[in-house]
Write a structure and sequence with these properties.
By secondary structure, this protein is mostly helical. The chain has one domain. The longest helix has 35 residues.
C-alpha cells in the first residue's frame, strides 16, 4: 500500500514538473554558443517528435475494429487534438529553421503532418455519421418516414469507408516510419551538446506523458 502511494506521489510530482515547464531552461541551461532564437527549438522539437512517436506506435497496433463507434470517435478526437500540437510545433520548427538555416526541417514533413490531420478529421466525421445513423435507427423510423431511399442502412457502408481509410493510414505510417526516424537522427546531428541535452531530457518526459492518450 505504501509502495503504491509512493508511486502515485512520484507520478504527480512529474506531472506538476511537466506542466510548469515553460522555457528551455527547464530542460538544461543553454550554453553561451546557443543563439537566443534557437534555444526553444530542441525542446519543442522533442515535444513534437515524442507526440508523433506515441501516436504512431499506438495507431499502428490499435485494434479499432473491436472498439465501439463511440469510443472510436473519442479516439479520433484525441488524435486530432494531438495533431493540433504536432502541426503547431512543426510550423514553429520550420519557421525557426528559415531564420537559423540549420536544415532541421523540411516543407515535406509539414505537408505530411497536415495530410494525416485531414485523414483523422475525415475519420472523426465518419464515426459521427455512424452514430447519427444509428440514432435514427434506434428511433424506429422507416425509410418512407425519412426521405426517399436515404435510411439507416448507410451505417454499414460508413463503417466500411472508415475501415478502408484506417488501413490506408496505417500503411502510410508504416511506409514512412523508417524515413522519419532517419530524418530525426539527421536533424539531431546538427545539435550542439547543450541542444542534445535539452532535446533528450524533453523527449523522455514528453514520451512518458503522451504514451497515454488520456493526457491529450
Amino acid at each position: 500500500m505504501k509502495e503504491k502511494k509512493k508511486n502515485s506521489s512520484a507520478k504527480e510530482n512529474r506531472k506538476r514538473l511537466f506542466l510548469r515547464m515553460k522555457s528551455p531552461s527547464a530542460f538544461g541551461a543553454a550554453r553561451r554558443f546557443d543563439s537566443a532564437s534557437f534555444m526553444n527549438v530542441p525542446p519543442e522539437m522533442a515535444r513534437r517528435d515524442a507526440a508523433y512517436s506515441c501516436f504512431s506506435a499506438y495507431f499502428r497496433k490499435a485494434e479499432l475494429e473491436k472498439v465501439p463507434v463511440e469510443e472510436r470517435s473519442r479516439i479520433y478526437r484525441r488524435i486530432l487534438q494531438l495533431f493540433d500540437l504536432i502541426e503547431e510545433k512543426s510550423e514553429f520548427i520550420f519557421n525557426s529553421d528559415m531564420i537559423e538555416k540549420r536544415n532541421l526541417e523540411h516543407a515535406g514533413t509539414l505537408a505530411y503532418i497536415r495530410l494525416l490531420r485531414k485523414y483523422f478529421r475525415l475519420l472523426n466525421d465518419l464515426t459521427s455519421a455512424q452514430m447519427e445513423s444509428g440514432g435514427i435507427a434506434a428511433d424506429g423510423a422507416s425509410a418512407d418516414e425519412l426521405s426517399g431511399d436515404f435510411s439507416p442502412r448507410m451505417e454499414p457502408q460508413l463503417r466500411q469507408f472508415e475501415a478502408t481509410l484506417t488501413a490506408a493510414v496505417r500503411e502510410l505510417l508504416e511506409r514512412n516510419h523508417d524515413l522519419l526516424l532517419a530524418q530525426e537522427e539527421q536533424r539531431r546531428k546538427g545539435f550542439s551538446k547543450s541542444d542534445s541535452e535539452r532535446y533528450e531530457r524533453a523527449f523522455a518526459l514528453y514520451a512518458e506523458y503522451y504514451a497515454n492518450l488520456e493526457n491529450v
